[in-house]
Design brief:
heterodimer, A: alpha+beta, B: about 130 residues, six-stranded mixed sheet, four-stranded antiparallel sheet, 11 strands, about 5% helix
């Protein structure tokens, strides 16, 4: 009992609380934290079921192909990315609302994905992933025959 | 370095349907911006993901800079999770120093709009062209 007490760091909970409060401030006040602050609220995503496939779209302004990674398994997709925000050379920062971004979002699906048919495109700051469902998982219309 | 560049997002508010009657379901949004300054002028960068080049409208009139951009969006299939839709981006700024209106440059790249405003003595209203 005594050993357990001495190994306990009395500041640990305080630091955890401090981190939580810092994160709350960053989430509530866009641009708070200044340069180098990492946004903890990630980009917005839409997920749709097209029957034969799933479509995942995301708002990713300023994210380049090189800073984006999409990993797929038979039942999930993980999208990771980042962007840096830096002033143009020779300019001073007047206002900083656009934050440096580092995000990771994972989606799991009811139907299994056909990994040979997953495409990802990044245009005008919008990501669009279309992931085909495995043939077995695609909905079929059954013809009803009269007896 | 002046520190009195003000942002007025509520200035001269209009209804979304007045601006874009053909896109009634637009959500108005004030995009996040960065503003940089040096002796030559200002650089403004705004996150406008999905905005189309032909929808961008930049106006400078009597010290006020206004930009608007639209992102169309059509939902497909059945929604599993939806966090965004069609958007009308709009911000207005009052620029404290004289800007050469005919030197204002607007560029769109990877969903980020960049406006460059060279400083000048005179200020006069004009429509600003958007470059590819």
């Amino acid at each position: 009992m005594f050993l357990r007490w001495t190994s306990h760091d009395p500041w640990r909970e305080f630091r955890a609380l401090q981190r939580q409060m810092d994160q709350m401030v960053r989430e509530l006040v866009p641009g708070a934290g200044g340069h180098g602050a990492v946004a903890h609220t990630g980009p917005a995503f839409n997920v749709s079921d097209l029957g034969q496939s799933y479509v995942i779209e995301a708002e990713l302004p300023g994210v380049t192909h090189d800073d984006l990674r999409v990993d797929a398994t038979a039942s999930s997709l993980t999208i990771k990315g980042r962007r840096d925000v830096a002033p143009p050379e020779g300019y001073a920062t007047h206002r900083s609302e656009r934050s440096t971004l580092e995000f990771s979002r994972a989606f799991t699906f009811d139907s299994k994905l056909d990994l040979e048919n997953v495409t990802a495109k990044l245009n005008d700051g919008m990501l669009r992933i279309e992931a085909a469902k495995q043939a077995m998982e695609q909905p079929r219309t059954i013809t009803v025959k009269a007896q | 370095m002046s520190d009195n560049l003000s942002l007025q997002t509520t200035h001269r508010e209009k209804q979304g349907d007045e601006l874009a009657p053909e896109l009634g379901s637009l959500t108005r949004m004030s995009p996040a911006v960065d503003i940089f300054e040096n002796d030559e002028g200002y650089v403004i960068r705004a996150d406008v993901p999905g905005a189309t080049e032909d929808s961008i409208d930049v106006r400078f009139d009597r010290g006020e800079l206004v930009f608007e951009a639209r992102r169309p969006y059509t939902a497909e299939g059945s929604r599993i999770a939806h966090e965004f839709g069609a958007v009308l981006y709009r911000r207005a700024f009052r620029i404290p120093e004289a800007v050469a209106a005919d030197g204002i440059d607007a560029r769109l790249s990877q969903g980020v709009l960049e406006l460059r405003l060279p400083k000048a003595e005179e200020v006069r209203p004009r429509q600003i062209r958007v470059h590819a």
